[in-house]
Amino acid sequence: MKIAIVGAGSGYLPGVIRGLLHRAADLAGTEIACHDTDAAHLEVMARLARRMFAARGADLTVTVHPELKPALDGASYIFTTFRPGGLAARHLDESIPLRHGVVGQETAGPGGLLMALRSVPVLLDIAEHAGDAWIVNYTNPTNIVTDAVARYSGARVLGLCDQNIGDTEMWAELLGLPFDRLEADWIGLNHATWAERLRLDGAELDLPALLAGLEVPGGGATPWRDPARMAELAKALGFLPNSYAKYYFFHDEVVEELRAKGTTRAEDVLAMLPAYYAQVEAESRKDDPDPSRERGGGEHGEFAVDTICAIERDERRRMIVNVRNNGAVSSLEPDAIVEVPALVGRSGAVPLTMGALPRAVRGLTQAIHEYEVLAADAAATGDRRLALQALMAHPFVRSKHTAERILDEGLAAHRDHLPQFR
Ligand code: G6P
Ligand code: MN
Predict the structure, then answer these.
(1) Which of the ligands is closest to the CA of residue 160?
(2) Which of 45, 48, 223, 334 is most exposed, with minimal Cβ within 10 Å?
(3) Are 416 and 89 in contact (CB under 8 A)?
(4) Does the C-beta of 140 come closer than 6 Å to ligand 1?
(5) Which residues keep their CB under 5 angstroms from ion ligand 2?
(6) Where exactly are the structural domains of the chain?
(7) Ligand 1 contacts CB of residue 182 (under 6 A)
(8) Which residues are catalytic?
(9) What is the model's pLDDT at position 298?
(10) What separation, in Å, do the N-terminal and C-terminal C-alpha atoms of the chain show?
(11) Rounded CA separation 161/78 (Å)
């Protein structure tokens, strides 16, 4: 079997390699075909993978492909994990909206729209050469990308995000419950999911009662977690919000904070990357490398590899993925790409029936969905008017003039990555 990795020079690769190692027995004999546009990073990560596989006696071979098409050729799975335009483009996604008083975020809001406009053409090109392969996609915004690939190509695609795992872990800590025995029904849209049901060892917990007793913790936010705001929000809602909910329910405060902070998340990541890659490069020359876990050190890699194994081995494993709704969430149209628990096996992901979204966030989630469909259509067609409508439909924006300013600046700034708008 062959698994192609598009974006194999990514800083997240050490985690992916660890994920492959953790399923090495199930993947014995597999070729890992690595492609990236950054030749230096590609070389480092390929060497790291080879050394780590050899050190653990894993029967996995690594091939390196500076060109995309040979990497895809004959692959059963195409794992996509790249940022079109890199972190420099992400900086623009985060800073342009902020100049106009709107949260600058790489996946939610206008920043996410700009990223979708860059990601979708690349994914559609990959889809064209995918043949029968499954595209297992991490490239953001994963739901919009998944929707565009599903509607504008014949390729088979599954959208991933490991946020549900990290968020369940955060709630386990906040509620003082053992993470490894918890299961939450996160439903909605990627980075806009909600959980009304939480089980411990399979038994339903009384979530409203748990939340009523929850004390809002002190302390500030990290790049990934904002427990104080999450707790405050959950107590108001009576169910669990995902981490990105803060951008919707604390929008104006977050704008102030982002402005006061002075640097974007992209700039912060860019600043740490040289030391990070130096560490990984040094490890890649050792016999038994132990690369840094600073990027994608959590569940990211394992989750992706587990998904591939679930399809390949027809495991019908319950995983939270982005998939065509087909009635799983009654509050969203059947064609919507939703993020829900699904059984993942040979025929892909079969979403489990989850019922309605809680009323307090139903309208919000439906509005985000309409934005996402417009965003996918704009990204696939290069229709500026659809892109403008997408921004006007987004709950962060609404104002036509603000939408126009952000879009004009965004299209100009990202010109080189937007062939469909030329
Ligand atoms: C979470 C999200 C991902 C996103 C990442 C960014 O994991 O689920 O979709 O790409 O955060 O993390 P970073 O460290 O680059 O800010
Ligand atoms: Mn995500």
Answers:
(1) 2
(2) 223
(3) no
(4) yes
(5) 161, 163
(6) 1-422
(7) no
(8) 244
(9) 75
(10) 39
(11) 16
Backbone angles phi, psi at 238, to 5 degrees: 85, 10
Cα(209)–Cα(231) distance, integer angstroms: 13
Low-confidence ranges of the chain (pLDDT < 70): none
Q: List pLDDT tens digits, range 357-380.
A: 999 999 999 999 999 999 999 999
DSSP string, 381-394: HT-HHHHHHHHHHS
Q: CATH homologous superfamily of domain 1-422?
A: AglA-like glucosidase (3.90.1820.10)
Query: Is there an atom of ligand 1 within 6 Å of 105 CB?
Result: no
Which residue has tokens 């924006």?
A: 397
Ligand nearest the Cα atom of residue 105: 1
Instruction: Check pocket membership of 90 for ligand 1, CB cut-off 6 A.
Output: no
- Alpha carbons 298 and 77: distance in angstroms, whole number: 22
Which numbered atom of ligand 1 lies nearest the CA of 163?
8
Q: What pairs with residue 159 in β-bridges?
A: 137, 322
pTM score of the predicted model: 0.97
pLDDT, tens digit (0-9, with 9 covering 90-100), for 173-196:
999 999 999 999 999 999 999 999
Cα–ligand 2 centroid distance for 139 (angstroms):
9
Q: How far from chain centre, in Å, is Cα 39?
A: 24
- Using a 6 Å cutoff on CB, does residue 269 contact ligand 1? yes
Ligand nearest to the CA of 267: 1
Rounded to the nearest angstrom, the gap between the alpha carbon of residue 97 and the centroid of all alpha carbons in its chain is: 20
* Encoded amino acid at 348, one letter: G
Residue among 161, 168, 299 to mutate when testing ligand 1 (max atoms within 8 A of CB): 161
Mean pLDDT of the chain: 97
